[in-house]
Amino acid sequence: MNPLEHQITYPMGDTLPAPGVAMDVAPGVRWIRMGLPFALDHINLWLLRDRQRVSNALVDGWTVVDCCIDNPLTRAQWEEVFASSLDGLPVLRVIVTHMHPDHIGLAHWLCARWDARLWISATDYYAARTAIGSRDGFSGEAGTDFYLSHGARDEEFLSHVHGRGSYYHSLVPDLPTTYRRMMDGDAIEIGGRTWNCIGGYGHAPEHIALHCPELSVLVSGDMVLPRISTNVSVHAAEPEADPLRLFLTSITRYLELPAGTLTLPSHGKPFTGLHVRIAQLQKHHRERLQEIIDASRAAPLSATDVLPVMFKRPLDAHQMTFALGEALAHLHLLWFDGRLDRWLDSEGVYRFAPVQAPAAVPLQATASLVD
To answer: How many CB atoms lie within 10 A of CB 213?
Structure first.
C-alpha cells in the first residue's frame, strides 16, 4: 500500500469491473479494465455515451477512450464488452489519449470494426506511425548505443534492448489511415456534454486528457495516476530532451480544475483528491532531484549510477529501460537548470557533477584588469 493513498479517496472502493463487462462510474461514463502482460498488469479504458450525425440521421452510440494493445486476448475481451456493455449500440468514435502501445495498439481494429474515426493529437499520431515503421527508434542498435553512452554495461539488459527493434510494431501493428486531430483547448461535444482537451507533455509527445465540467470528471490518461508516478523518460531518438520539466509544467494545469473532480486514470482506480495528488507528484520529483544532487557531490554520476539512488528495488531488463530513461529525465532537468555539469568521459559515458563556482579572481589581478 502506498502510504500517500489515505490522502485521496476512491469513491468506488475496491470494486473493479468484471472482465469483459463495463461498470458505470458517472452518468454516461463506463469503466473497462483489461489485462496487460507487463509488471503494470492492467489498463483502464472508458466508454462515453454519445450521439452523432451519421448520413443525415442522429445515431446513438459510444465513444471509446483508449484501446489496449493488439493481441488475441484483448480482441476477445473487447468482443465481450461489445456483447455485454454497449446496450446494443455502436461505437461511433475512438479517442486515444497518446501513442503508447497500451493506449493505441488496437485502434486500427476498433476503427475498422465499427467504421469509426480515430481522434488523437497530430504529434502522437505521427509518432506512432514512425514507431511502427522503424525498427531502431526506441530499441535496437540505436537504443543499445544510447544506453551504453549512459553507463549501461549489463549484458542481459543490452541484449534485451538490442533485440527489441520490432517491439512497438508487435503491440501496435497498424494504424487507421485517417484521423481527426485533437489539440489543447479544443471542446468536443460527446453525447450532448462538452469535454475540454488538456494537452500534456513529458510522458508522451502530445498527450490529451479530457475534462467534462458538467460531470466534474477528468479522463487523465497517464498524466495523473493515483498510486504510481508517471514514467517520464529521455529516449534515444531525442537524447537531449528535458521531459521532466515539461511534465511538471503540464500537471499544474490540472490545479485549475475543481478539487473534487472525479479523476479517471489509465492505471489504478478512479479517485478524488486531484490537487492533493498533484502536490504529491511534485514533492516526489523534488525529493528525487535532491537525492541526485546529494549523490553527485560524492562523485560524478552516469544515469546508470543514479538507478540505485532513485530505485530501491531490483529491476528486470524491461523495467530498466524505463528506469534509465527516468534517471536521465531528472539529470537533464538539473543539467538544463545549470545545477549539474555534463561531459563525455574517456570511455564514452556521459557524466554529471555539480557545477563548480568560478574561482575568485585575486584583488590585485582585478585591479590590473580595470586599469
So the answer is: 14
> Where exactly are the structural domains of the chain?
3-284, 298-354
**Phi/psi at 29 (nearest 5 deg)?**
-130, 125
CATH topology assigned to domain 298-354: Arc Repressor Mutant, subunit A (1.10.10)
Give pLDDT tens digits for 310-369.
998 889 998 999 999 999 999 999 999 999 999 999 999 999 999 986 655 554 433 333
Sign of the dihedral defined by the CA atoms of residues 337, 339, 340, 341, in that order: positive
Closest CA relative to residue 266, chosen from 94, 60, 36, 92: 36
Q: Residue 354 to residues 18, 229, 261, 328, 347: CA-CA distances in angstroms? A: 51, 26, 41, 15, 20
Rounded to a whole number of angstroms, the distance between the first and last alpha carbons of the chain is: 68
Cα 170 to its chain centre, rounded Å, is: 19
Determine whether domain 3-284 maps to CATH 3.90.1720.10. no
**What single-letter DSSP state applies at residue 177?**
S
Residue 31 has pLDDT above 60, yes or no: yes
State the cell numbers at 222.
497517464
Which DSSP helix (H) or strand (E) runs through 282? helix 274-296
b/e sequence 2-25, b meaning 16+ C-beta within 10 Å: eebbeebeeeeeeeebeebbbbeb
| CA 360, chain centre distance (Å) | 45
Percent of the chain with pLDDT over 90: 86
pLDDT for res 60 = 97
Q: CA 141, 308, 227, 266: dihedral to nearest 10 degrees?
A: 0
What is the per-residue pLDDT across 91-148, written as a single tens digit (0 to 9) for each?
Answer: 999 999 999 999 999 999 999 999 999 999 999 999 999 999 876 656 688 899 999 9
Phi/psi of residue 149, nearest 5 degrees = -70, -10
The set of cell numbers assigned to 63 is 465513444
